[in-house]
Sequence to fold (263 residues):
Amino acid sequence: MSGKLFLISTGPGDRDLVAPKASQALSQCSDLVAYGLYLDLLGDVCNGKQHHDLPLGKEIGRARLALDLAAQGKNTALISSGDIGIYAMATLVFELLDLQLQGKETESSLSAQWLDVDIEVVPGISAMQAGASRVGAMLGHDFCTISLSDLLTPWQTIEKRLHACGSGDFVVSFYNPRSKKRDWQINSARDILLQYRPGNTPVLLGRQLTREDESITITTLENLDANDVDMFTLVSVGNSESRHIINGDKHWIYTPRGYSKKL
Fold:
C-alpha cells in the first residue's frame, strides 16, 4: 500500500508564517525530502524523522526520491520554501507523473507505483507576498512574476514576457534576479521596463525576507542596479501608478486599484 506524499510550503523563512496545515502534515510524515536549509528553517518540527537532504541542483533527484519513498508506503514530505507551487518543486512532481503516464519515465524502478500515491499540496506564503507586506500594498492591483533565470527558459522568451509586462503595466516581482554566473539579466530587465514606465517608479529590494538578517530597500527603477541584488533578493517593480509615500520615518508603497474615482 502506498503512502502519502505531502508537497509542503514553508513560507519565506519566519517559522510563524508556516501554515498550521503544513505543520500538521509534517507531523504525519516519517520522511522529509528537502534542501537542507529548509529543514533548518523549520526547526524542531523535523526532529525524529528521517531526513533526505539533497543539494541545490538535485531537484529532479529530490522529486523522484520523494515519489519513491511514498510508493514504498512511507508518508513523505517534499519541502520547498515560499509556496511549493511557485517556481518550486510541485510542478516537477507532476511533470514526472505526466512522463510516467506517457511511458517515458525510466529512471526509477518504482515509477509505475507513483500513480497510486496520494498527493496533497499545502500552499504557503511566497516571497512576493512577504515583500509586499513589508512595504504596504505593492500588489494592490494586477501583477505578474517573472523568473530572470535563463537556465531552463531561453532569454528570448523572458524578453518577450518583460515587454508584455511593460506594455500591460503590471506590477512585477522578479525571482532569481541574479546569481554568481548571471549578473546582467536584472539590468536588462530594468532597461526594458524603462521603455514603458517612468524612471521614478518605486522598486522594492527585499533580501532574506522575514529572516533574522532581513533587509528592505526602497529605490526607483532608474536607480535599480545589479550590484544591489543577489540570489537572496526579491525585486518588485511598481507599475506606472504605484506610489511611494513617506510619513516621518515610515515608508510605504501601494498600487491603487482605482478607488480615487469613488474617493
Notes: The mean pLDDT is 95. The chain has two domains: 4-125, 128-261. The first helix runs from residue 20 to 27. The longest strand covers residues 4-9.
